[in-house]
Write a structure and sequence with these properties.
seven-stranded mixed sheet; Aspartate Aminotransferase, domain 2; Aspartate Aminotransferase, domain 1; alpha/beta; 2 domains; three-stranded antiparallel sheet; 40% helix; 14 strands
């Protein structure tokens, strides 16, 4: 049996530190917006190379409140991709705006700057009032999007950029951490992430003090002082226990990411000649391999075969957002984004986490090779 992920292995390695950190919170008796949250916000912002961090209760709320802080609202449109988790689009909807999708690059699975440029040119040519106000690129699976091209386009069209870095903690584009390019960068600390808590959590990072101050209001009822509400905020606070755990884990993040990169290299070696397409790492990036996603035209049959061999796999994500019932009102049709749709029918996420054993990876590689050696075509 090869598990897709086993979080207990990581916990056992740092159990004493985790227990000590959570005990500290219980002994202080403060569980909401205390010293642990403040310290973690500072530490994670510094890690990402920016001035400010604002802890949230989830990556979804981080995206939503970042959009609100940027002034995105009713009648606005935000460009993103359809091959992400639906939260990327939901955050746009929650802000009152409309998601507008563009296609992706076939190698990195990230937003295609050429498709973005083509969309904006078409919109400008119509002469209608520009409703697109922001770009929300997703650094999918831990590989950075082309932030130089995206930022250059955003400047020419006067669009805000809010990065969805929920799968890319520590990833770099041209030696700069993702999340630090746009006006804001958004992260999730869901347990399976490269930096994951023991429950939900998220953060928005920024270099702009005004955005930082607005985000702090938005996450806690719009309060500047208790019972003095300056805007319509909500309850989206990272709690002290999660922050204490994440502070411990942040110290190990680079080590774990290094291990992910090492294991990705091992997978690529054991899968050489296996008849599948492995992830790429562009020369201008530092991939942190949140997931190890292969592609095969026989994806569904391969997944069933691996399951019979005791190997867990997942698909991230089988149905693009533009084809989900939840977004049928947008009017998109199958065929609108051919690269996205082709990839969604071929991708398969293999077991992958820092504590995965080399011998387990060899078993996965052997079974995939055996599948294709059995006469099954790619």
């Amino acid at each position: 049996m090869v598990p897709f992920i086993d979080l207990t292995r990581q916990y056992k390695a740092i159990e004493e530190e985790i227990l000590s950190a959570t005990k500290r919170v219980f002994e202080k008796g403060r569980f909401i917006l205390g010293e642990e949250v403040s310290a973690f916000e500072e530490e994670f912002a510094r890690y990402c190379g920016v001035r400010y961090g604002v802890g949230m209760n989830s990556g979804t709320d981080a995206l939503y409140l970042a959009l609100r802080a940027a002034g995105i609202g009713e009648g606005d449109e935000v460009v993103t991709v359809a091959n992400s988790f639906i939260a990327s689009a939901l955050a746009i909807s929650f802000a009152g705006a409309k998601p507008i999708f563009v296609d992706i690059e076939p190698e990195t699975y990230n937003l295609d700057p050429n498709a973005l440029e083509a969309l904006l040119k078409r919109r400008r040519a119509t002469g209608k009032r520009q409703r697109i106000k922001a770009i929300l690129p997703v650094h999918l699976y831990g590989h950075p999007a082309q932030m130089d091209a995206i930022m250059e386009i955003s400047h020419r069209y006067n669009l805000a950029v809010i990065e969805d870095a929920c799968q890319a903690h520590g990833a770099k584009f041209n030696n700069k951490k993702v999340g630090s390019f746009g006006a804001m960068g958004c992260f999730s600390f869901y347990p399976t992430k490269n930096l994951g808590g023991s429950g939900d959590g998220g953060m928005v990072i920024t270099d702009e003090k005004k955005l930082y101050e607005k985000l702090r209001l938005l996450r806690c009822y719009g309060e500047k002082k208790k019972y003095q509400h300056h805007l319509k905020g909500g309850n989206s606070r990272l709690d002290e226990i999660q922050a204490s755990i994440l502070r411990v884990k942040l110290k190990y993040l680079d080590r774990w990411n290094k291990e992910r990169r090492k294991k990705a290299s091992i997978y690529k070696d054991v899968l050489e000649g296996a008849g599948v397409i492995c992830p790429v790492e562009k020369e201008w990036t530092r991939h942190v391999y949140h997931l190890f996603v292969i592609r095969s035209k026989k994806r569904d049959a391969l997944q069933i075969f691996l399951k019979t061999k005791g190997i867990d796999t997942l698909i991230h994500y089988p149905t693009p957002i533009h084809l989900q019932k939840a977004y049928k009102e947008l009017g998109y049709q199958r065929g609108d984004f051919p690269v996205t749709e082709k990839c969604s029918g071929e991708i398969l996420s293999l077991p992958f986490f820092p504590e995965l054993k080399d011998e387990e990876m060899e078993v996965v590689g052997k079974q995939i090779k055996d599948y294709f050696k059995g006469g099954r075509s790619r």
